[in-house]
Amino acid sequence: MAAFAARTGDARLAPILRRLTRPITVRVTGRPGTGRATVAAALGGAGWTVLNPPGPDAGDVTVLVVAETVKPEDSAGRAALVVLNKMDLLGAAAPGQVGEIRRRTGRPTVPLNALLATAVLDDSLVGTLQVRALDQPGRASPVDAALADRLLATLDRFGIDALTDALRAGAGPSALPGLLRELSGLDEVLTALTAAAAPVRYGRIETALTELRALAVYSGDVALWDLLACDAVVLAVMSAAADVLRADGLPVGGADAVRWSRYGRGPVNALHRRCAHALTRGALRLTERA
Question: 168-222 pLDDT, tens per residue?
């Protein structure tokens, strides 16, 4: 659609495109003490548009932050995703707790260490870690107290020990940011958040196409009808629909019009029925092109 608008200079498409491409907003909620603000900072630092402060009814996607377990005052409510923060406190029990929270909330749940996800190591902190890595058991080298406090505030004990062990094992300073990212679990959270936002993206596409059809009807512009029927649009809708179904745990596989036509006629909700129709149409279009 953007390419069509740029090629034709059709200003009527501009407001439709703005609504379609505006950033998906994230509302981060959670009890005090769960690290909600740090999780919000981690998501914002990764490129998501996080609402600050999070209004009660705002946001395209709501993320609920919990720590250690779900408590009665934790309400999944509108949450599309639950983040189990401070996962390092649970140790080996973290995977089991993730499963328990998922069972109790009925929401996708992923663990995170938001402190490590937002940590920034400057040269002085890296130097302090290197000094620690050279220490022999029972013989700690003197470290500036202010630096030691800042290191603890930045990484906590878990992060300090993990990075110190990595340096002792031969890792270089340049490897530490990547190790922090891995230890934090941030990439898994971002993947889960992208999946949780799939229905929002698909809904925006549906709305944009509805507006485009209305514009085509009222204007009688054949070029708009051609745009709606072109391969690029049909396959883009198919891809967005597949993302929705994958996010709900369905294996999408290859283009199979018969399968998705049958699925859409089954006992599924309205969103899945529309997605099945989009996949059926896309599969037929791919068959025609083959």
Answer: 999 999 999 999 999 999 999 999 999 999 999 999 999 999 999 999 999 999 9
Q: How far is Cα 146 from Cα 63, in angstroms, rounded to an integer?
A: 35
Task: Write the CA distances from 133 to 30, 139, 160, 161, integer angstroms.
Answer: 37, 11, 10, 9
DSSP 3-state of 79 = strand
**Cα distance between the two ends of the chain:** 24
* Beta pairing class for 61-67 and 49-50: unpaired
The tokens of 6 are what?
A: 């740029």
Give the confidence band of 138 by pLDDT, cuts at 50, 70, 90.
low
Domains of the chain: 2-8+198-289 (no CATH), 19-116+185-196 (3.40.50.300), 121-173 (no CATH)
Q: Which of 223, 224, 225, 255 is nearest to 239 (CA)?
A: 255
Distances (CA, A) of 270 to 22, 79, 111, 211, 281: 25, 20, 31, 20, 17
Single out the residue of 246, 247, 238, 166 nearest to residue 209, CA to CA: 238
User: What pLDDT, on the 0 to 100 scale, is given for residue 140?
Assistant: 62
Mapping DSSP to helix (H, G, I), strand (E, B) and coil, where does residue 58 land? coil
Angstrom distance (rounded) from CA 28 to CA 125: 30
CA separation, residue 282 to residues 108, 110, 208, 279 (Å): 28, 32, 18, 5
Predicted confidence (pLDDT) per residue in 16-75, tens digit: 999 999 999 999 999 999 999 999 999 999 999 999 876 666 789 999 999 988 888 777
Structure tokens, 10? 């059709």
Secondary-structure breakdown of the chain: helix, strand, coil percentages, each rounded to the nearest 5: 65, 10, 25
The predicted model scores a pTM of: 0.91
Helices 198-219 and 222-229 meet at what angle, rounded to 10? Answer: 150
